[in-house]
Design brief:
Helix 10 (318-334) links the parallel strand 6 and strand 7. It is built from 10 helices and 7 strands. Helix 1 (11-29) crosses helix 2 (36-47) and helix 4 (69-123) runs antiparallel to helix 5. The protein is of the alpha+beta class. A 5-stranded mixed sheet has the order 2-3-1-6-7, sandwiched between helices. It has helices at residues 11-29, 36-47, 51-62, 69-123, 133-182, 193-205, 222-229, 231-248, 272-287, 318-334; strands spanning 212-219, 254-259, 262-268, 291-293, 298-300, 305-311, 340-342.
Amino acid sequence: MNTLHPSQPQPELMVAKENALKAIDLLVDNQVAPLPLPYAVAYEYWVGIITELHQAIDRQLREGKSLDEYFLRELYEQYLAAERFSRVNGLRDNIQGILRTLMEALEETGQSHEEFGQTLRASIPNLTEESAGPVLRQIAEDLLQAVVKVETSNRLMHERLEQARQETDQLRIDLEQQRRESLIDPLTGLYNRRAMEQFGDDLLSNENQGQLTLLALDIDLFKSINDTYGHAVGDVVIRQVADTLRKCIRGDDVAIRYGGEEFVVLLPNTSLEGAMIVAETIRHRIEALRLVRRTDNMMVRPFTISIGVSCRRPADTWDDIFQRADEALYRAKEGGRNRVVRELDETQR
């Protein structure tokens, strides 16, 4: 039998080791500690199986943006955590199905045994030695003892299955909590991109939904803020924008951190004109923010935000609405930043 010498690693191990070293180098080059979560994303990048993840990192690097911890966390939640959660969720459903089937079968079997036992108990007194003879009576008593043993065994099994069902229900609750947490951006507490897609699909599928408008927002010159004051201040700026969004929306409105310095606000039952008013309110409040760096009391230069606004049209998909808002955001940037721009009319496109 052919075997590899211990000093000669298998080819798969050599490839894995090479990808592991590349992943660590990628993180170190971007000043990110190779902790488990960022490392998992960097390793998947070099493996290259998840095309969208690979393209997202390439695009970030191509645009000169850093691979900070929060960007990598978003990729993890979008491409890695979702897959693992789906597998666990499927396993949970399978376990619950098996338990349900077992308990139903056990209840049916237990009921049959109970009915048989009751019949034997009622019949044995009638089996006198004169009418049935000692042998037949002994057989009946032995059968009754066997049924009692089966009933006891079934009762213990039922108790264990009931305990397993309760544990599975708790697992379902825990997984649901994890699912909710997986829809929240850890830096800002806003919903994340995965949640945005879920909300968008739900809103579009609601036949009773009225007008739906969308704001696409981007912090102007955010890279220069990070370069000038550091990522810690950049994180504070992102959180301040998130807090401003929370204060400017109400009711069923949804604020989302789309990624990096980009945000999205969903405004159900809001006209395009109403959304423009909300957007201008957000823009003015952010323009008025003044931040001071705690370490040295340095005043952080004022920052602004650009906003694109779109409204749902008949037969729109979620991508249609989002693309028009993104195009309007691009025109706001090209027009000088710190402004709100609405989508083009159909005749202008």
